[in-house]
């Protein structure tokens, strides 16, 4: 079967491509780092790639996914996440209308609805609190509209946070582990610069996440939306302390106000029973094993923290 991954060169895209290729599937990428490079904002290029490759499964991962960056450049975030999605889905409707599409959204779309640790189901209201989440909600609305009006076979998924080897800087697990390894190598004084350590987050392994994506695109119902979560929530402090324990590094923790995120006090807890019932998916990688793999990644000589 032919699988197309937008954002294949990114953190999640690389893991998804490895999973599918390991199963003997034919995989192509649609992003600016692919060969040939394709920008989702270039409608003609998107259409040409779909016409040539004729994908049967499409995973739409490409996005501007940084919350802080979305505040700095809300218009650019909207263009990539909304206009890029619309370009893709309209091309699918015209060129490969029978292809199944997995639109990857985010748990951030729930926003204020998640106050006081409420368990969030897919029917709960969407109340985004940052431009990134607002753009993903808008992309979801377009996807639902095109399912109703053009019968585009699109399935939406709202994943909680995920980490793993290869995640770039700018995300908490990578930022912490890169500093830990830098201290270990003597390249940084033994201080870890942190934001709000009391904030709580869900942490799934990216390899479990892409397995869920591959299951959902086959077994999910077009037009439907699914939460994706493992139910493993812990504080940023617990994350850092576990990383330090596993690495054996001793370091002072230094609070940096510049690293605080707006609404860091909020915890989004997702009910993923709909996805589990549809696919049978369960997480398989233990949290500590994920952290050990992240540590091994940053300890490689070719990885420069």
Short précis:
The protein has 305 residues and is an alpha/beta fold.
Describe the structure.
The protein has about 300 residues and is α/β, with parallel strands linked by helices. It has a domain at about 1-165 and about 205-230 and about 270-285: NAD(P)-binding Rossmann-like Domain (Rossmann fold). It contains ten helices and 14 strands. Strands 2-1-3-4-6-11 form a six-stranded parallel sheet, sandwiched between helices. The chain has a two-stranded parallel sheet with strand order 5-14. Strands 7-10 form a two-stranded parallel ribbon. Helix 1 links the parallel strand 1 and strand 2 (about 25-30). Helix 4 runs parallel beside helix 5 and helix 6 (about 170-185) crosses helix 10 (about 285-300). The mean pLDDT is about 95.
The best one-word shape is globular
**Could you name the CATH class of the domain at 2-163 and 203-231 and 268-284?**
Alpha Beta
Order of helices and strands: EHEHEHHEEHEEHEEEHEEHEEHH
Strand order in the sheet with the most strands? 2-1-3-4-6-11
Largest sheet: 6 strands, parallel
CATH topology of the domain at 2-163 and 203-231 and 268-284: Rossmann fold
How widely separated are the two ends? 38 Å
How much strand content do the residues show? 15-25%
Number of helices: 10
Instruction: Specify the helix fraction band.
Output: 40-55%
Average per-residue pLDDT, rounded, comes to: 93
CATH architecture of the domain at 2-163 and 203-231 and 268-284: 3-Layer(aba) Sandwich
Low-confidence parts: none
